[in-house]
Write a structure and sequence with these properties.
248 residues, alpha+beta, 4 helices
Length: 248
């Protein structure tokens, strides 16, 4: 076995141990799995069945990933979600391949496939940081929208309160106007009643004075006759005609 083939076999074995240990899978299952066939020594090219490093997804890889997800052939080792963005680290235990996915609204945006756990972890951390950065705008939008709705709610409540206070103030003003008119009317009536009272008191005093005068006259035992009025002119004397004498 050449040195390159031995290196490839060692890398696959190390990848298998690292991948299966976090999942709690027994090492005995690896013994029954078919051992990878060492490639022929070709110094000009790398082995065709072992990728030399991470590569960004192509359309065929996206279809492959979707098929594996539909078949439940992948295990999700890590996941970070921020807003509508998510980063996932998926593992294909059958082929010892990692898929690092950056998704938006549950749609695959970027997918990187690698058989090196260190590279997969590094890409996953990069994607996780990108989800935090990308989601910041969405998070700010959510917060601003919530603030806007809360502000509109407060504005509506304060407008209702203002309308109620204005209605109460208008009602109080109407009542004050009515009370002022009633007070003015009452003052006019009081002035008229005061004048009538003074007139009534004057008449009452006059009547009481007359009563006292008449009572005093009734209580006087002397008979006071009224004096006869003096004649204004002397009566004219009545002339009596003398009888005429006739001689026989």
């Amino acid at each position: 076995m050449t040195r390159k083939a031995m290196t490839t076999a060692s890398k696959l074995a190390a990848c298998l141990v690292v991948a299966l240990a976090p999942m709690g899978m027994v090492l005995a299952a690896a013994k029954h799995a078919p051992a990878p066939r060492p490639p022929a020594a070709t110094p000009a090219t790398a082995p065709a069945d072992v990728p030399s490093g991470p590569a960004q997804i192509s359309g065929a890889t996206a279809d492959e990933l979707r098929r594996l997800v539909d078949e439940h052939a992948l295990s999700e080792l890590r996941r970070t979600a921020n807003g509508s963005y998510a980063a996932s680290l998926l593992f294909d235990a059958e082929h010892l391949v990692y898929y690092v996915v950056l998704s938006h609204d549950a749609e695959y945006w970027r997918v990187i496939k690698s058989d090196v756990v260190a590279d997969a972890e590094r890409v996953y951390r990069t994607f996780a940081q990108q989800t935090e950065q990308l989601a910041q705008t969405d998070i700010d939008t959510v917060r601003l929208e919530a603030g806007r709705k809360y502000g509109e709610k407060l504005l509506n409540l304060n407008q209702q309160r203002l309308a109620k206070l204005q209605e109460d103030a208008q009602h109080r003003q109407q009542q004050a106007t009515q009370v002022a008119a009633m007070q003015q009317q009452a003052k006019a009536q009081a002035t008229a009643l005061s004048s009538d009272l003074r007139s009534t008191r004057t008449q009452l005093e006059q009547v009481q004075q007359n009563i006292r005068t008449l009572e005093a006259q009734q209580a006087d035992p002397l008979l006071n006759l009224p004096e006869a009025p003096a004649p204004t002119t002397a009566p004219a004397p009545v002339s009596t005609p003398e009888p005429s004498s006739k001689q026989p």
